[in-house]
Amino acid sequence: MTTTDSRSAQTAQDRPEASPPPEQDAGQLQAARKRAHRRRSSKNWSLFLLFAGPNILLILAFIYYPLAMNLYFSSLDWRLGAPRAEPVGFANYQRFFTSPSGLEVWRVTGIFTAGAVLGSMILGLLIALVLNKKIPGRTFARTAIFSPYVLSGVGVALVWMFIFDPQRGALMFILDRFGIDSPQWFLDPDANLLMVIVVYVWKNLGYCAVVFLAGLQSIPRDLIESATIDRAGPIRRFFSVVLPLLTPTVFFLLVTNIIFSMTNAFDILRVMTPTGNGTNTIIFEIYLQSFGQFNRAGYSAAIAVVLFFTLFIITAVQLRFVERKVHYQ
Questions:
Q1: How does strand 86-87 pair with strand 76-77?
Q2: Bridge partner list, 77
Q3: pLDDT digits (tens, 9 = 90+) for 220-234
Q4: pTM score, two decimals?
Q5: DSSP tag of 21
Q6: Helix (H, G, I), strand (E, B) or coil at 86
Q7: Are 243 and 216 in contact (CB under 8 A)?
Q8: Which helix (H) or strand (E) element contains residue 174?
Q9: 71 Cβ partners below 8 Å, 6+ apart?
Q10: Are the beta carbons of 280 and 196 closer than 8 angstroms?
Q11: Which helix (H) or strand (E) holds 306?
């Protein structure tokens, strides 16, 4: 009897256990995968917040919060330092787009931007074409051309104020040699605008030349040699081979120079023409309206918002339409 029971027990132990249904295995496997995915996702987000969190907070605190506050201030009739401000809605924007002073700002900004961008890019390309050749002292020439770009705008403006001085400036002596009277650069509004354009182009010239030089050096030499073998002259090679391959560089400089000319020329304008007088570009008008004799902080904030959306629209249009003409290798 005991032997029979022990054999039955041994047979029950040797018998395999019943396996769970396939549906249950698939459900458990899917649940385990979801838990592992959640753990990995949580770990990735923790690492992201650990490394990027401080930067995100700084961007929110010093870029987006001031931008939101500026939008709010643009709807107020508020003078800088005044304890109270009156909400006026879009009256500041309407005033800027309809007043004669606002239209003058657009005119001056357009002339300054066109002169600065075209002057810097055309002269920069010509200099880059020269510096791309094997000439003695080209390394020193490249350094000399680029050095004004890294100089302080205030220092550059002070030096050029001496050059343009109609009484004892260096330009006055040069013009006097040819029997030409020096214009009253600081009194005539048109001469004032021409003066600051010249100074800005001189300072920004090295940046365009260096970028164009990098673009020229990236052009395959075999294409130029093939054009030379086909008896294409220098001008034909430039317009048929070099310029089409430089279109990415031209597009990049066009976008950056428009932005720079509308935002980074303040130091030159402030030092050389502290009260405007024909040089009231949009960035300088923001300063004059807020910190000048008017102290109209709300109106100045509205102009700043207009500048932001103007740059946004110009950049979007360039990326949408101008980039179609770019030939990428």
A1: antiparallel
A2: 86
A3: 888 888 888 877 788
A4: 0.81
A5: P
A6: strand
A7: no
A8: helix 170-177
A9: 301, 305
A10: no
A11: helix 297-320
**Residue 62 has what DSSP assignment?**
I
Contact 297, 276 (CB under 8 A): no
Structural element, H or E, at residue 180: none
What three-state secondary structure class fits 210? helix
CA 145 – CA 208 distance, rounded (Å): 10
- Cα 269-275-279 angle, rounded to 5 deg: 45
Is residue 12 scored above 70 in pLDDT? Answer: no
Q: What is the gyration radius of the CA atoms in the chain, in angstroms?
A: 33
State pLDDT tens for residues 45-54: 888 888 888 8
Asked if 284 contacts 108 with a C-beta cutoff of 8 angstroms, the reply is no
Confidence band, pLDDT 50/70/90 cuts, at residue 286:
very high
Residue carrying the six token digits 């090295």: 206
pLDDT of res. 1: 47
Cα 147 to the center of its chain, rounded Å: 20
Rounded to a whole number of angstroms, the distance between the first and last alpha carbons of the chain is 93
